[in-house]
Amino acid sequence: MFCRPLGKTVSSATDTKVALDSVDYDESQAFDTTNNEYVAPETGKYRIEGHAMIGSFTGTGAFQFRAQLKSSGGTLDEKKLMHVDTAYGLLSPDVSAHTRLTKGDSVWMAVFHNTGASESLRAGEGNTKFLVERIE
User: Fold this and answer.
1) Distance CA 47, CA 132 (A)
2) Which residue did the predictor score with more confidence, 13 or 57?
3) Could you tell me which residues come within 8 angstroms of residue 130 by beta carbon, excluding any fewer than 6 positions away?
4) 73-83, pLDDT tens digit by residue?
5) What InterPro entries does the record point to (predicted)?
6) For the domain with range 2-134, which CATH number is right: 3.90.1720.10, 1.10.150.130, 2.40.50.1000, 2.60.120.40?
7) What is this structure's pTM?
8) What is the rounded distance in angstroms from the CA atom of residue 7 to the CA atom of residue 122?
9) Where do the structural domains in the chain lie, given as residue ranges?
10) What is the pLDDT of residues 5-52, one digit of tens each?
11) For residues 47 and 130, is the Cβ–Cβ distance under 8 A?
12) Res. 119: pLDDT tops 80
């Protein structure tokens, strides 16, 4: 399953589940578009990847941008990037996990930043994306 957002805004200082409204393929029909979660169609080992990109920040100063892979059982991976500069620059953390999911378990991607204003995730090919693949 591979999907990406079509340009979403993320509020400051809160973990925000990434709304993924463009599903490029989902052979098992396991991505729930109403709550933006992948629901494991069967028990097995899965490779999960997320990539989030935020463009030019609204403010200037020292900011944190964090991407997370979360599941019904907790956080699977988290990457934090710091930005200390002017209002320009691209931050794009990658997160990944290989984990066992039980049928019905959910996984999703979340992001966080602390700029003090709403910021936009970059949309389009290669920018913000979420991938889940059953590997065994």
Assistant:
1) 6
2) 13
3) 2, 3, 4, 18, 20, 38, 49, 50, 51, 108, 109
4) 899 999 988 76
5) Tumour_necrosis_fac-like_dom (IPR008983)
6) 2.60.120.40
7) 0.87
8) 6
9) 2-134
10) 776 888 888 889 988 878 888 999 999 988 999 999 999 999 999 998
11) no
12) yes
* DSSP states along 1-65: -EEE-SS-EE-TTS-EEPP--EEEE-TT--EETTTTEEE-SSSEEEEEEEE--B-S-SS-EEEEE
What b/e readout covers 98-129, taking b as 16+ CB neighbours within 10 angstroms?
eeebeeebbbbbbbbbebeeebbbbbeeebbb
Structure tokens, 134: 């059953």
CA distance 114 to 1: 30
Tokens read off for 106: 């959910």
